[in-house]
Amino acid sequence: MSRRLVAELLTRDAFRPFGEVITTQGADHYPINNGTAERYHDLARLELSAAGGSPLLSLFRAQPRQLPVKLSVIERHPLGSQAFMPLSRRPYLVVVAPAGTPPDVTALRAFAAVNGEGVNYAPGVWHHPLLALEALSDFLVVDRGGPGENCEIFDLDPAPLLVWDAAAT
Amino acid sequence: MSRRLVAELLTRDAFRPFGEVITTQGADHYPINNGTAERYHDLARLELSAAGGSPLLSLFRAQPRQLPVKLSVIERHPLGSQAFMPLSRRPYLVVVAPAGTPPDVTALRAFAAVNGEGVNYAPGVWHHPLLALEALSDFLVVDRGGPGENCEIFDLDPAPLLVWDAAAT
After folding, report:
1. Dihedral over alpha carbons B48, B53, B55, B57 (to 10 degrees)
2. Chain B residues within 8 A of A43 when measuring between CB atoms
3. Which of A100, A129, B11, B27 lies 20 to 30 angstroms, CA to CA, from B168?
4. Inter-chain contact A34–B129, Cβ cutoff 8 Å?
5. What is the number of alpha carbons within 13 Å of residue A23 lying toward its C-beta?
6. Contact status of A73 with chain B (Cβ, < 8 Å)
7. CATH topology of domain B4-168
8. Do the beta carbons of residue A103 and residue A18 sit within 8 Å?
9. Residue B78 burial (10 A CB sphere; 0-12, 13-18, 19+)
């Protein structure tokens, strides 16, 4: 029988070992533009210049998954951070494991983002590819372009089964 | 009587002198994550490293304006680009003038973003602060942090009046 991984609510504290939650909640902010806007400043630790890298702005359009999701693979980007910001407020799921070689699959964690917040993975943090729910979902992505091998993939075998009880989160 | 500036539809071609429109329309893209997502790749020319700069990820929360809007000021960031991506699909307006000292106010242009697309201002391009419409609106912003004076402000006198006919755009 597959191991079950249960998604918990995404919070700043819970996600701290893996990067940052991109949210106005609890963020530093100040008025700009003569008071007509508020700047929630510097919400993620972007690390994009290693080994001749530079920042890229892209958009990922992710297909929705059906729960439960069989998690067969995780990946990581050793040379840079990778930030995802949803362009809708639909919930999505995040699966991570601490940086390390090989990944400690017993330390996999799953989170449900339910308030339109984004995530920024620190360099080297293992994560599952995007897990959109309900409908085709767009995410703005800030990650690293440049020379060098910046994507490692690890097969999960046996594949855990990701479950989420929205009502209990 | 104030000069009137009429917002036209935001398109890639019309905006090219000022930066990039951040949109999937006409963008390079390819499948990733075993075909479960599509990457619309490198949608804006991020220039964030001049004079010891580095990229910042922030969120601007902009108050809605009432039309017509009196445009009393424009600003620019000589040391870096600045990208805005709306986190809703509400329309918003963009006002720009070409890079130059002083700005050529006779060359002001106004654009209406009506399809959820973003904009990236090239370094030195003059622009009005965010012009959200209808409701409080969040934008994800990628701009430059670092040493040096990176914000110049120019007062528009007389102040043009920005108008937009949504039905005619």
Report:
1. -120
2. 57-59
3. B27
4. yes
5. 17
6. yes
7. Jelly Rolls (2.60.120)
8. no
9. middle
Q: How far apart are CA B118 and CA B67, in angstroms?
A: 21
Total beta-carbon pairs less than 8 A apart between chain A and chain B: 122
Q: Which of A98, A99, A106, A69 is nearest to B34 (CA)?
A: A69
CB contact under 8 A, B41 and A49: no
What's the token pair of residue A56? 């890229």
Q: Which tokens sit at B65? A: 């304006």
**Which of B29, B74, B82, B140 is the best substitution to test chain A (most A C-beta atoms within 10 A)?**
B140
Q: What is the ipTM of this complex?
A: 0.97
Check CB contact under 8 Å for A59 and B24. Answer: yes
B111 close to B93: Cβ distance less than 8 angstroms: yes
Q: Does B38 touch chain A (CB under 8 A)?
A: yes
Helix and strand numbers (H, E) in chain B are 1, 18
> For the residues A52-65, what does the mean pLDDT come to?
98
Parse chain A into domains and list their residue ranges: 4-168
Q: Could you give the 3-state DSSP secondary structure of residue A16?
A: helix
Instruction: Tell me if A127 sits within 8 A of A95, measured CB to CB.
Output: yes
Nearest CA in chain B to A39: B60
Could you give the CA distance from residue A164 to residue A111 in angstroms, rounded to a whole number? 9
Which chain A residues contact residue B129 at CB under 8 A?
32-34, 36-37
**Over its length of 169 residues, how does chain B's per-residue pLDDT go in tens digits?**
579 999 999 999 999 999 999 999 999 999 999 999 999 999 999 999 999 999 999 999 999 999 999 999 999 999 999 999 999 999 999 999 999 999 999 999 999 999 999 999 999 999 999 999 999 999 999 999 999 999 999 999 999 999 999 998 8
A138's tokens: 């767009």
Pairing of strands A82-86, A137-145: antiparallel
B6 CB burial (10 A radius; 0-12, 13-18, 19+): middle
